[in-house]
Write a structure and sequence with these properties.
- This protein has 145 residues and is mainly alpha-helical.
- The protein is built from 7 helices and 4 strands; from the N terminus they run βαααααααβββ.
- A hairpin with a 2-residue loop joins strand 2 and strand 3.
- Helix 3 crosses helix 6.
């Protein structure tokens, strides 16, 4: 049986791994971006702002909220929200994403019984000639571990 993993689920794992680095950011503009695309709601924003005045705690609770979120692209939107103010975090995420994608491709190719290869398609939009604005793997199959 094959399990389907979405780009959002992969990013969720990466964000969880990087939580110690991410909780140090100021979450206000990130919250605004997530609110504008309906990843979080007014009640979430009010609760976070009122209950957690210290930015680090505020950010930590925002990440916990996103981990519980049923939104199918919560972490994709989080990555995009970080682009302008925290490009160094996005660079780290993308390195981990590229590494993980390569590992999954190797795993799938090494365990394939039907000779089909894993195809990961990328959508890229340039901010400028040196930087990718968006890198998002599509859904792909791999054997369930």
């Amino acid at each position: 049986m094959q399990a389907k993993i979405t780009g959002n689920e992969i990013l969720k794992e990466i964000f969880q791994e990087m939580q110690p680095q991410i909780v140090g950011i100021n979450p206000d503009s990130i919250m605004d971006a997530l609110f504008s695309v309906k990843v979080i709601c007014v009640d979430d924003c009010c609760k976070l702002c009122d209950s957690f005045p210290v930015p680090k705690d505020h950010c930590r609770q925002l990440l916990f909220l996103l981990h519980r979120s049923p939104h199918p692209q919560a972490f994709i939107h989080l990555r995009l929200a970080l682009l302008d103010e925290y490009p160094w975090i996005v660079d780290q995420i993308d390195k981990k994403l590229t590494s993980l994608t390569s590992q999954l491709q190797e795993f799938h190719l090494g365990n394939s019984t039907d000779g089909k290869s894993l195809v990961v398609r990328q959508r890229q939009h340039s901010i400028n000639s040196e930087r990718l604005c968006q890198w998002k793997p599509t859904i792909f199959d791999h054997p369930q571990i």
